[in-house]
Design brief:
Radius of gyration: 22 Å
Order of helices and strands: HHHHHHHHHHHHHHHHHHH
Strand content: under 5%
Number of strands: 0
Number of helices: 19
Helix content: over 70%
Number of domains: 2
Structural class: mainly alpha
């Protein structure tokens, strides 16, 4: 059994490992912030700035990079890499200027009390994001061209440095301002390194035709990401409207997908899309099934374990007021079921992105409708179930579309036998431990 588990771990792609390194850097930083390096009010300012940056940038950066997966040419020495870098830089500058102009509005919208600290940090974070967003071409280039060793070396170095520049100044007595200044310097260094990669592997030539093609592929994906993100805020608004602040806090602590599932499934999806771009659909059908099976053999057992232990751990980690959080989190754990379907990989790899946007719109509508309906039937847990149902509907719609559009069998988007077995097992664990045993625990 130990040998089997080791084989599963070694089957994890380098792109998945890279994303886990990124996640560990962020989580490690957050944990040390709470261990006395920062006051709670300063952490609140830090988290507010991160939220502003996420809302304003993550959707279009993700859209452009995923769009690039479908159009990056096999001839590496093309202008594609430079034009992607150029597009990210221009959009990043526009967004940074817009954020700077509306800076005072964010103080009111996010009810920030320490405005002096916010204003000092925000300008440096704008410098960081302006230079950092274009550097995503570095890691995607390593991934798309299967340069795995440089990818992992780059990820290990960059995210160690990102962790260090945020933590070390605080540890030796400096303020968060100095940490942000060093973070901005790090982003400038990454931006310069991007130019080195571009000079080595791309033509420095603006090609309007490629930019138009990239935008046509990226805009639907960016819009779909934005719409999916808004679903979370709508759920939060529904809870806020119908329940008190204590219940709202408990819901928000639980309404989170298991990070490992999210990171590894998304990374595998992008890896598969890149393979389909290079080799076509039919040459990768077996690979999709095999990779989905390997990931499922890791994530399905972990999910079952979490379903069992979360009703006990949440009250211990927080307090008894957050028992509800465990119930919500266990429902969100069921998102592993649609996560292990990969129709979007085929669509992105083939450049068929508009349907992903339309599916996201349908998903949002189902999410709102089911959340409001199930709220009256199941209470607050119905809102979480609305999210699971909507996301499952999105994947099934794309699954059926891919099967019909490309004349593919249903098992083309996953390892069907393992997916059915794993899904039923996870649902069984949820029903038994959440509905029956949790009754005795609460």
């Amino acid at each position: 059994m130990v040998k089997s588990f080791q084989l599963r771990i070694t089957s994890i792609s380098h792109w998945q490992i890279f994303q886990v390194i990124r996640f560990c850097s962020v989580i490690g930083t957050n944990i040390l912030f709470t261990k006395g390096l920062l006051e709670t009010s300063a952490i609140g300012v830090y988290e507010s700035i991160l939220l502003i940056a996420t809302i304003s940038s993550s959707f279009w950066v993700s859209g452009i990079m995923q769009g690039l997966l479908g159009v990056f040419p096999k001839n590496e020495k093309s202008p594609a890499l430079f034009n992607s870098f150029f597009l990210l830089t221009i959009i990043g500058l526009v967004v940074a200027i817009a954020l700077y102009i509306t800076q005072e509005q964010f103080v009111n919208w996010f009810n920030i009390s320490n405005t002096t600290l916010f204003n000092k940090l925000f300008i440096w974070y704008l410098v960081y994001t302006t230079f950092n967003n274009p550097t995503y071409v570095n890691e995607y280039f390593w991934m798309m061209t299967n340069r795995n060793k440089p990818l992992l070396l780059y990820g290990s170095l960059i995210y160690f440095l990102q962790f260090a520049v945020l933590i070390l100044p605080l540890a030796v007595g400096f303020s968060l301002l100095q940490s942000f200044q060093l973070l901005a310097v790090l982003s400038i260094c990454k931006w310069i390194y991007s130019w080195i990669i571009i000079y080595q592997h791309s033509q420095v030539l603006i090609e309007p035709k490629f930019i138009r093609i990239l935008l046509s592929k990226s805009v639907p994906l960016a819009a779909a990401t934005l719409i999916s993100g808004y679903a979370q805020y709508i759920d939060a608004w529904i809870v806020k409207k119908h329940f008190d602040d204590a219940t709202f806090a408990a819901f928000m602590y639980g309404a989170r997908e298991f990070p490992l599932s999210l990171i590894m499934a998304n990374a595998l999806s992008e890896t598969l899309a890149n393979r389909i771009r290079v080799n076509g659909i039919h040459d990768n059908l077996k690979i999709i099934g095999n990779e989905a099976k390997k990931l499922g053999l890791i994530l399905f057992p972990i999910t079952c374990l979490l379903i069992v232990v979360m009703p006990v751990l949440f009250p211990l980690i927080y307090n008894h007021d957050f028992t509800l959080s465990a119930s919500i989190f266990n429902i969100y754990l069921l998102l592993i079921i649609p996560r292990l379907l990969f129709p979007q990989s085929i669509l992105i790899g083939c450049g068929k992105n508009p349907i992903i946007l339309w599916s996201a719109v349908i998903e949002l509508g189902i999410n709102i409708g089911c959340s409001l309906l199930l709220l009256n039937i199941m209470g607050i847990e119905g809102i979480a179930w609305g999210t699971v149902i909507a996301y499952m509907a999105d994947k099934i719609f794309l699954w059926l579309y891919v099967s019909k559009k490309f004349q593919l069998p249903l098992q083309s988007v996953t390892h069907l036998k393992l997916w059915i077995t794993g899904s039923l097992t996870v649902l069984g664990f949820y029903i038994v431990y959440h509905q029956i045993l949790s009754t005795f625990l609460l």
